[in-house]
């Protein structure tokens, strides 16, 4: 039997020493999760069923109110559109980054990282300037003769979708690029030698191999979009409120922690459910076909 000598010189079986050392290393992580995740969630759960009166009245009000239902619909529609558009734009960009020369990829990666590091509030205000009726985008469209009157691109869900798509693109491009780089090019060459055209190589070889990365990126973008606050509040306005704005209004303006906790827990349950689905269908797949 293999043995292990600890700091005091005592001899103990190696397997027992590994068990002791492994559990001790996990304790700080468990404490961190308990303090910063489990305890706040439990507090929210308790407040959502105890305030202002004990019971499930907060959840019944959330589900039964047409106003709150519209906010839920707005949140999921915008998050879905942002995710789909980000995938449609992000996949070609990630593919291009994966096959470009190294120095070009480095420059574009630097631009992506710079956009992520730029203050979120500054980026959102920049989009407000670009999308307003007298902004650059409307002026360019009118100068090209594509429109006769300025388009309403702010204070609606269109502006929210545009602004959030811009912000979310790096979060789908970066993981996708990593997955595509791991795909063996000889697989695509073999498909072409077997008679597959470019479309078949894309849809029947590249996309299935990149699907785990697409699923992970799409889940990240969708979940982040569900809980986004700054961009929807500035570009959407009060008439197009989303769930994060509703939670903030409950807590800050109405001081209704019960309703705020109920809405937050609904969002958390949806997020964990989506994560479970992603793990169920894509968690065991090996990206890159290796």
From TrEMBL:
The chain crosses the membrane at residues 20-46, 67-89, 159-180, 205-230, 250-277. It is found in: Cell membrane. CDD domains: TM_PBP2 (cd06261). Gene3D superfamilies: MetI-like. It is a multi-pass membrane protein. SUPFAM superfamilies: MetI-like. Keywords: Cell membrane, Membrane, Transmembrane, Transmembrane helix, Transport. The keyword ATP-binding does not apply. It comes from the Bacteria. Its main location: membrane. The keyword S-adenosyl-L-methionine does not apply. PROSITE patterns: ABC_TM1 (PS50928). Residues 72-278 form the ABC transmembrane type-1 domain. Pfam families: BPD_transp_1. Belongs to the binding-protein-dependent transport system permease family. CysTW subfamily. PANTHER family: ABC TRANSPORTER PERMEASE PROTEIN, INNER MEMBRANE ABC TRANSPORTER PERMEASE PROTEIN YDCU-RELATED-RELATED. This is ABC transporter permease.
């Amino acid at each position: 039997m293999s043995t292990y000598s600890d700091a005091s010189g005592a001899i103990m079986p190696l397997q027992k020493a590994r068990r002791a050392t492994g559990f001790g290393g996990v304790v700080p992580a468990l404490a961190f999760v308990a303090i910063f995740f489990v305890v706040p969630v439990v507090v929210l759960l308790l407040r959502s069923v105890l305030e202002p009166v004990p019971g499930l009245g907060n959840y019944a009000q959330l589900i039964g109110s047409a106003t709150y239902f519209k906010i839920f619909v707005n949140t999921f529609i915008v998050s879905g559109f942002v995710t789909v558009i980000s995938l449609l734009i992000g996949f070609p960009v990630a593919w291009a980054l994966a096959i470009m020369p190294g120095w070009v990829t480095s420059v574009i990666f630097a631009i992506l990282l710079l956009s992520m590091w730029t203050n979120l509030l500054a980026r959102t205000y920049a989009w407000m300037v670009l999308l307003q009726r007298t902004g650059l985008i409307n002026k360019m469209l009118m100068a090209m003769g594509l429109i006769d009157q300025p388009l309403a691109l702010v204070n609606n869900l269109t502006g929210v979708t545009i602004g959030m798509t811009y912000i979310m693109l790096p979060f789908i491009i970066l993981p996708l690029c990593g997955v595509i780089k791991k795909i063996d090019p000889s697989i695509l060459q073999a498909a072409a030698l077997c008679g597959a055209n470019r479309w078949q190589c894309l849809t029947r070889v590249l996309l299935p191999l990149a699907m785990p990365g697409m699923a992970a990126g799409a889940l990240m973008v969708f979940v982040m979009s569900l809980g986004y606050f700054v961009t929807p509040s500035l570009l959407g306005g009060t008439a197009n409120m989303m769930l994060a704005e509703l939670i903030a209004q409950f807590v800050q303006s109405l001081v209704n922690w019960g309703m705020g906790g109920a809405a937050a827990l609904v969002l958390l349950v949806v997020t964990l459910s989506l994560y479970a689905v992603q793990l169920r269908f894509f968690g065991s797949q090996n990206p890159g076909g290796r």
